[in-house]
Amino acid sequence: MHDTRVLVITGAGVSAESGIPTFRGKDGYWRNLDPAKLATPEAFARDPKLVWEWYRERRQRIRNAQPNAAHGAIAKLAQHADEFLLITQNVDDLHARAGLPMEKMVQIHGDIFVTGCCRCDFSYPGRGGSPEPPGAGALQPESGRLRSIAPTSEKDVDLPRCPECDVLMRPGVVWFGEQLPLDELQRVEEYLDGGTCDPVIVAGTTATFGYIIDWALRGRRVGGELVEVNPEETPFSQFATRLVREPAAIALPRLVETLVGRHSPG
Ligand code: OAD
Fold it and tell me: Quick check: bond before 199 cis, omega within 30?
């Protein structure tokens, strides 16, 4: 591929075929669980054990999962494009484990494996860094229950505390009502300012948040392709120049083969 500048935006649907539940889809987290009880600063203040339990369970599920063909295809596209950025709303590490370099990726909703202090700047890095802190690691099998979200009565669930200021630590994700991370926002803006893209691919997201649609539209070169990969219609569909109504692990490898082939020399 020559002179290609690509923007890919992903959401939970891209990890669905790795066995990671989506949020709003069938069997999605928000079908059975209340975001206000698990993914807000208020929820954490009210019941940090419950919130940590949910994140530990999700961490464990992600550790046990493998990247799928969609993650692989995106990593391959990144390798072949002259300029590439993935903006993912996913907090898992499956894009990275499929071989996508961190500098080509913005995790705009954070990284579930990071554990950060609620007060100061101290944090334990994600899986690429040093070992996770006590209490933030694997869920013990006997505590793997989240069918109901009644407050946990377990007294012995470790809550990680900041070694600097002894305040509770939290998962390094963006919760409802919180600002997006400024440094990551800046990376998105720099990429968008650096030139327009063709194609822009939006895969596996309901595009619930306005900034997702905004970035996709701003990123598109005049006359360029704006592809949606999603088995279902979303608020973004009306803007797409091409709709691929298939699971990401089927659609993306094919799409990437076509793109890489189209731009190969000879
Ligand atoms: P959602 O759960 O809202 O949407 C998942 C999308 O993936 C849906 O549009 C599905 O149709 C689609 N989908 C399901 N299976 C698919 C597959 N195999 N291939 C392709 N698409 C598939 O997830 P997100 O849009 O990522 O934020 O949600 C955005 C944010 O809302 C999340 O990052 C999280 C959530 O609340 C925070 O926690 C801040």
Answer: yes
Q: Say if residue 139 is in the same domain as residue 31.
A: yes
Token pair in block for residue 265: 């020399």
pLDDT of 65 above 90: yes
The verdict on 10 and 89 lying in the same domain is yes
Binning pLDDT at 50, 70 and 90, where does residue 2 land?
low
Q: How far is the C-alpha of 169 from the C-alpha of 171, rounded, in Å?
A: 7
Computed on alpha carbons and rounded to an integer, the radius of gyration of the chain in Å comes to: 19
Q: How far is the CA of 236 from the centre of ligand 1 (A)?
A: 13
Cβ of 213 less than 6 Å from ligand 1: no
pLDDT (tens digit, 9 = 90+) per residue, 24-43?
988 899 998 999 899 999 99
Domain that holds residue 213: 5-20+67-109+178-262
Q: Is 110 in the pocket of ligand 1 (CB under 6 A)?
A: no
Is the pLDDT confidence value at 154 over 50?
no
| CATH number, residue 141 | 3.30.1600.10
Last residue of a domain, one of 124, 142, 173: 173
Q: What is the DSSP string of 18-75?
A: TT---SSSTT-HHHHS-HHHHSSHHHHHH-HHHHHHHHHHHHHHHHH----HHHHHHH
Residues 54 and 72 in one domain: no
